[in-house]
Amino acid sequence: xxxxxxxxxxxxxxxxxxxxxxxxxxxxxxxxxxxxxxxxxxxxxxxxxxxxxxxxxxxxxxxxxxxxxxxxxxxxxxxxxxxxxxxxxxxxxxxxxxxxxxxxxxxxxxxxxxxxxxxxxxxxxxxxxxxxxxxxxxxxxxxxxxxxxxxxxxxxxxxxxxxxxxxxxxxxxxxxxxxxxxxxxxxxxxxxxxxxxxxxxxxxxxxxxxxxxxxxxxxxxxxxxxxxxxxxxxxxxxxxxxxxxxxxxxxxxxxxxxxxxxxxxxxxxxxxxxxxxxxxxxxxxxxxxxxxxxxxxxxxxxxxxxxxxxxxxxxxxxxxxxxxxxxxxxxxxxxxxxxxxxxxxxxxxxxxxxxxxxxxxxxxxxxxxxxxxxxxxxxxxxxxxxxxxxxxxxxxxxxxxxxxxxxxxxxxxxxxxxxxxxxxxxxxxxxxxxxxxxxxxxxxxxxxxxxxxxxxxxxxxxxxxxxxxxxxxxxxxxxxxxxxxxxxxxxxxxxxxxxxxxxxxxxxxxxxxxxxxxxxxxxxxxxxxxxxxxxxxxxxxxxxxxxxxxxxxxxxxxxxxxxxxxxxxxxxxxxxxxxxxxxxxxxxxxxxxxxxxxxxxxxxxxxxxxxxxxxxxxxxxxxxxxxxxxxxxxxxxxxxxxxxxxxxxxxxxxxxxxxxxxxxxxxxxxxxxxxxxxxxxxxxxxxxxxxxxxx
Length: 695
Ligand SMILES: Cc1cc2nc3c(=O)[nH]c(=O)nc-3n(C[C@H](O)[C@H](O)[C@H](O)COP(=O)(O)OP(=O)(O)OC[C@H]3O[C@@H](n4cnc5c(N)ncnc54)[C@H](O)[C@@H]3O)c2cc1C
Prior knowledge:
3 domains; alpha+beta; Butyryl-Coa Dehydrogenase, subunit A, domain 1; binds flavin-adenine dinucleotide
């Protein structure tokens, strides 16, 4: 921990809140000391190694395969854009990258981590391409791969992988989006013919917003209530299952009984053909059912290894979390691109003259500009490391499912949901801030930020709405260690919350070796040093635990109540549950970041990462100081000191801003934009090493 102690000293010169000698005099304006040209290459390379993570080779090959054609073209009509993206999708299929994601026995390479990492890289380009790839291989291919039996997989997957068969993932309906367990589409088994009849019984049952549905899809993985006749011939509903239903012929015409419509222009993602699908008693053979979790035999007899409809459905959904992980990862990549654009612009764009030198002041020299961008750069690092961690966990799960008991699997699913919600929400704010940080130039489509902003917007909604996903994290924190696995409803959640939640949450977090190591290394027994890694971890985990414990106490009131009362109590605590989910994700993300820092062998990179980690925590404290003060976790002196330390660190990091964003290793052609190259900007900022330089 020597280097961290050094960081504390150099960053702040003191323990926050403790009166010490004043910091050395600084120039009136924090001077940006970093060069505007390429940053410190050795340091950027060492930092990149940390960000690239375990699948560095896949990142490198994907990066090398990317050309300017993967960028979002400007000014195309919707049809032209769709055509362009389809062409790029074919190119992607030819690279063999999509194959990585499928099992070897299905013609793939069995490398889930590899494909997720490669798809993350697509986030640096046209998000329409990333989304279309996600729909085709992640969702449509993923449904067949994870829910289908061997015969079905053999029949469809080779063509899905090669793109000879384009497909849809048709889950959402007009009436049911977040509440997918209550979809209305039906698939009723007809014993006479041995077929399923797929039907849209009401207008609200129409499948909506479906990718590939407006134009390119030929086959759809349709989620529907599965109904078989019981022994008396009465309909017996087994809950939501997935069936493969052909929707178009090879010429692109709707098949009999199928009606597709085009959503046309959306708020973004112009290159993706989203549409609606309606089924009018469409017949498909019994084999169309993807029957891994629930099968129907020729006599119409239903069987499943999972008894409860709810548990079965959530187990099914659990196998499909790759899409969620992929969306979070790609939006993180998009946000890094936006930050890199804004940082580069901030280093070359000057506004107003310095009163002492008479020279124009680069934007990034302004305190406010540093505060707008540098905490986001810090979070970008933390999220990238956390994203690597969840990808590694999912890869391990897919390779060795037996290593995962229910508890570990549920935890992985909750973190996949939480990281998706956290990163996509943050990416939206960050891309917006980056666009504003580039002023009028940022608003010009040629500089990419506006398209990126429009395209990334919906990442907060699809693959699970962020509010709903964060609630899932909060609920999981309450139920994580229930002895019986179950898909707890609100009453059960409430009851469980009474008994064990506080103990188990504490036990769990503090059981980690990293936790122990860092907390043992704290030398400041008063726990006042906000730049001490152990204290930082403790501060974030304590906030999360406190929120979970207090939610549990609120829910206690509902004990013994009937369902409606339980809903009322649960609903009145919803903001609290969400706050607990968000706080947990902050501490979990920070933990993953610290683990990555601990594993970094390059001393300079560790020092830099240490500062980024400090900024991450100080920014949390600064934004949530009301909570820390209200709950007597920090005094006003210390929150003020935290803000001051944050300011100083942001200025310091701004001096290395170019290096920090170079380490994102975004293909250089992405930065070939007018705002960085034309006459609208002044000469590059000179390096003024020494003033506040880092080395
Ligand atoms: C461009 C695009 C592409 C898509 N592609 C596909 C696809 O290929 N396949 C597919 O199946 N689906 C797809 N979807 C659908 C997407 O997954 C859904 O839009 C999403 O799940 C949200 O559902 P909803 O739109 O019905 O919103 P709703 O569930 O109605 O949510 C609306 C609002 O209510 C809030 N809300 C909902 N429930 C709660 C609650 N319990 N507590 C508090 N607040 C709540 C949400 O936070 C949200 O702000 C796509 C959507 C879009 C826009």
